[in-house]
């Protein structure tokens, strides 16, 4: 309520109209939801119950994840079918911190070992768990773990000029390999059960309404900052090279650019954004386990972006929220047995009838309408197939 | 632990029966005894009594005994009435008297005589011993082998006596082996005898021989131990080699499964460039076609069951092929040139197909049986080959070469290649590209359906069937080189064999993970797969 | 609902997200008060649908039966079904939705351990009741959860005893899927077997990933392990989807139950319905209930169930029986407490005794687990089990296994004023090993 779109300073170079609306919505939501949750009586029609807060918080982390995919798919043409792996790694880094915070409150009361290690007779903490009792270290790992994986993977792949579907398939193989690895109990990440039963985050009870609201607002903030960062990147010279790579990589290379380095930077930034999304997701959902690595999850992320509109950033976030809201809505009540039909139908319909996604189609319509008015402020909004 | 305590029940029952039989045969006094006591024991509904009754029947020499034992084995032996009596169920469900095999006039309500694993073993022993009376050489050999496995010293005198009378060379060698097996662990024999036994057993060269050789007693003479150690070493070296061969066989068999799963994708993805995430569901539809075919056969034409797979193969091809054509005409054809977007649409289709099958057939697994010619196994040297797997390899190769021939030798194959290589030029040559697109997608889907028929033999027939193969299929096609059928063949077999060679060292999970990492690294080395299409285009 | 939606729109301007939030919130207010709501939290899609769909049907069936008998406390029951879609975080979300939005009095749900772990914090935070109907690894006792499936000592150990005594098994293959239930069960069994004098070299432990489908190497290894002259058996904790290819490979390689019997803890009537059982005849399973239990209570239940599902071939299985027992216990406890209030019902549940379907009675113990008979069955060629052994009495669950290092000193007792799920008898304190 305190901020309306009109009050914002117009910065077309960086944000554009849709960007301003997007940020305004984010600000409005992050103010309104806590107010409606805390200040409005629970029996009021506009009260937002706590479970909706964590639900919305989850959607926002998904939106950030979708944003990270749009950065590389929409603007560089890298269709990563393994983005869920970076999300999960960020989540695991956060989960390991939360696990260490449980301390003696686990069911076995062991001060150092998490429950699942006591359970399987582990005698001491594996080396890779060291340091996760400190938040700054864990926070660093949230960025470093996905970032390093992306760096190594991308360095190999882009240097060898693995592109298109080949790249998609090996990213899928990567997340599948990680899925199998994290399933193994011997790896020391809790196997199939993953990490759960968290108690505190930075000393605050993770289940308290206040903590949930703070996490929610932080997710909104992360999404806003992530958006501004992506927007900044794609509007810069760097971003223009990325789009050029997307549309004709060879020509870019002939012009003297080291295409692989540009791609690598975008890929690592995207992985880190996904990692942050995962780190914010875990405390709100209360569990992280290997199923986040499953290739199907990563494909779903792609679908969110496609529904919202590839190469629009705002669309990716919108798509993530819409699809997940539909999932929440359709998995309850009498529609439950049929929701996969609707989800599947939605994907087919979007690809056939809205190839540019919701936001992309809207831009197209708007551009047509004001063809003679002025220069459209979304020249990058029309994605072309990357081959 | 004493040696007899180490024995399992089957050989013990068998040995007792054998020892008695040999003894009985020796005095030439096999007479029909009264088996009514044994029949009474069959009516108590207690496993102990049933087992005892079987022992008695085996030794009775009664002409009715064999019939009763085989009725029990087939689940056709019943008991009931007051006082309880035993009946055999004849053809048409009539209850027969076990002694006379005549229908009983006033049949009471009956319950089957229950059988568990212990009774099943006793049945085996009894029928084995009984057929020894009928002097069937094969049965005698089996009995000898069983004695050898049991290594019960008590059976030695009977065995030696039988050996003296035996004329059939095969049975004789089995009996000799059995005798040697017993002698190796026996106290109080000369080192020379023991060494002879070690050599005889060692010559067998298999896993069982290894176990027997390891039981040479601590007290044996040093030269015996030496001979045993040498024999063990020889066998182990030999078996290690066979083990590699066995793993290669397993690898080829896994490779043939991968090939089957991937070969349809090599068309839809490799040739047409559609990232067909619904490919796995085509495989699943093929498996469900097999299920429906078998259901119809079970209810209407039970005699055709062995041919059910042969009937299902063309039906699955046509059915999934038609579904493929339908998908191509309604969805895919609008997406040519937008390869990555086909991924989304086909992913949606795969969700719909899965849920459709779940709605129609329910979420649980469906039963698909194996025809008799696909069950069982045989041995080549120490290589064990299962018929089912062999047929799957043969089938995979047949499908592969049939597809290759279709693409190379037929008119439609020519048109398919023309369209995928240069659509516009093909169109201007008068090829109906739309029709060819539909046929190509249908062909790829139909082949996936045929793969489903084969996979129904080794995996769950459930709505999730396709999901478990989709990632592997894409890997195989990409690893082999998109657009090259030979690449798919070599890729599938390489991945299969590599997986199986890694598995013994790394375990199933780590083996799979390391294989995935190897493929990822390989793609860095050869970004276009094993068999890249050669061309001068910079964008390839 | 529509009204609220437009209202919210006005409030939040163009905030679509906010509107969605309020639409979600709106449903909770509209919930009716004249019925008692019962939550059903079982996957209806995804990989677990194969097992869980039946349990959803079971709860709906029980609700219908109960309503026909007059409901509970004079009110009708109303089942609220959600689909967590075999997605573990979604389980937590749906649990929250059931409790906070739908205001259900009790939830019947979950199959896998990870789904239970995922919803646990939610049930604790919102103080509701979960009935968990599947055999599991134990090592847990929570105030808000009632475990009506078997703990390892109510399934695995009696099965091993049976094989030792009746089949003379001396060599053991412990084969399982690599997740927490097989890991724990095998740890317990390994310790148990060693305590019975089985040597290290006579135990082979093998783990495979979920949905493992190529069993050639492992079955060949089992065959090799079993040819050492000692009677060998396989104790299988292989999960769901991997079982069919495993049994098919056993059949293919000619391993019969009379040579190397396999006793499974996750294979029941429902799973067998999808397998050609002829090659499997004689392999075993250990459960607390089989459809073939020959008592009038069971016959009547099967009749009603098949009438309800309009399918005279529909099978029953152990987790179904556990669901039925849990449901009846809840009804009885609510009637005892005179309210559906969670705290009152949780206290009332301890000590509640209801008939089980194998002709006896099961009681809810202070550790929130129930007493059960253990049945061993051999697979018959019609996909049913021939019960070859039944424990003479009921077995009380050991929620904390005495065979595991970390839990041998722990007990659970939720009776007031004790109320502790992990009491350490050595230190005399609640809270595990403690410091």
CATH architecture of the domain at 242-525 in chain B: Orthogonal Bundle
- Which strand order does the major sheet of chain B show? 3-2-1-4
User: Which parts of chain C are unreliable, with pLDDT below 50 for 5 consecutive residues or more?
Assistant: 1-32
- The CATH superfamily name of the domain at 156-264 in chain C is Response regulator
Mean pLDDT of chain B: 83
Subcellular location (chain B): Cell membrane
Keywords (chain B): Amino-acid transport, Cell membrane, Membrane, Signal, Transmembrane, Transmembrane helix, Transport
Membrane topology (chain B): Multi-pass membrane protein
Signal peptide (chain B): 1-32
Topology record:
The complex is a heterotrimer of chains A (387), B (540) and C (435).
Chain A: H1 16-38, H2 50-76, H3 83-102, H4 115-119, H5 135-159, H6 164-183, E1 195-196, E2 200-201, E3 204-205, H7 209-235, H8 237-254, H9 259-285, E4 287-288, H10 295-308, H11 314-330, H12 339-353, H13 357-369
Helix pairs in contact in A: 1-7, 2-7, 2-9, 2-10, 2-11, 3-5, 3-9, 5-9, 7-8, 7-9, 8-9, 10-11, 10-13, 11-13
Chain B: H1 9-26, H2 36-41, H3 47-60, H4 65-73, E1 77-80, E2 85-89, E3 95-96, E4 110-112, H5 117-133, H6 137-150, H7 156-165, H8 169-185, H9 191-204, H10 207-213, H11 222-271, H12 279-300, H13 308-330, H14 339-361, E5 377-380, E6 383-386, H15 387-409, H16 411-421, H17 423-428, H18 433-455, H19 467-480, H20 485-525
Antiparallel strand pairs in B: 1-2, 1-4, 2-3, 5-6
Helix pairs in contact in B: 1-5, 1-6, 1-7, 3-5, 4-5, 5-6, 6-8, 7-8, 8-9, 9-10, 9-11, 10-11, 11-15, 11-18, 11-19, 11-20, 12-13, 12-14, 12-18, 13-18, 15-16, 15-18, 16-18, 19-20
Chain C: H1 2-12, H2 16-29, E1 35-41, H3 49-68, E2 76-82, H4 88-101, E3 106-109, H5 113-126, E4 130-132, E5 145-147, H6 156-167, E6 171-177, H7 180-195, E7 203-208, H8 216-225, E8 232-237, H9 243-252, E9 262-264, H10 269-272, E10 284-287, H11 296-308, H12 318-337, H13 342-349, E11 353-355, E12 361-363, E13 375-379, E14 385-390, E15 410-413, E16 420-424, E17 429-430
Parallel strand pairs in C: 1-2, 1-3, 3-4, 4-5, 6-7, 6-8, 8-9, 9-10
Antiparallel strand pairs in C: 10-13, 11-12, 13-14, 15-16, 16-17
Helix pairs in contact in C: 1-2, 3-12, 4-5, 12-13
Signal peptide (chain B): 1-32
Pfam family, one (chain B): BPD_transp_2
Subcellular location (chain B): Cell membrane
